[in-house]
Amino acid sequence: MPLEKIEEITPSRHLVLWHINESESELLQLTGNSPELLRKLSEIKVDTKRLELLAAWASLLTLSKSLSFQFNGLSKNENGKPILIGSSREISITHSYPYVAVIHDIQSDVGIDLEQPKDKLLKIAHKFLSEAELKGSYNDIVKLCILWSAKEAMYKIYSKRGLIFNEHMIVEPFDLSKSGTITGLIHMNEYKKKVKLHYRVTPDYVLVFNLD
What we know:
This protein is an alpha+beta fold. The chain is built from 7 helices and 11 strands. The protein folds into 2 domains: 3-110, CATH 3.90.470.20; 114-210, CATH 3.90.470.20. Helix content is 35%, strand content 32%. Strands 7-11-10-9-8 form a 5-stranded antiparallel sheet. The chain has a 4-stranded antiparallel sheet with strand order 1-2-6-5, with helices on one face. Strands 3-4 form a two-stranded antiparallel sheet. Helix 1 (24-31) runs parallel beside helix 3 and helix 4 (120-128) packs across helix 6. One of its GO terms (molecular function) is magnesium ion binding.
């Protein structure tokens, strides 16, 4: 089973990283054939997306056993935010095949994003970065990926529609390293929140999630 890790971020917050190398049938053996899961799978035609969904369920099942809580399945609220059925616990899910990551907190909002640095970020950077952020990124693919993932994580924390990435979210300047802590700000109408984020750079992906 390619569960890479279950990591305790704080006593109430945990992260699961899954590296998919199973077949769909192998993942189904891990998740069980729940009617809700099978219904969701029937709506997905792309094979890798089906595997990502199964790995997310397997991650949450594994985490629920580790932390001794009941996992009754996944749903989404009216804004598309993933929620645990029958639970007030908070989760956020990200996937970039063949990786899936899940962050869970007993009560606080969470956001996570995993991306593989790609040249396409150079073409769309102006759509998600402010002028100051563009100048500070120096067209560095990895730094652009961290900025993108940080804003994706903040978007998931806000969890409502309407956020414009290059207007309503900013990331304070930072020096690039293999891992570090950065600060983001969400400012949407009357809503204003400063977010402390942790990032990690590996040879295969960039991972960002909130710490507070």
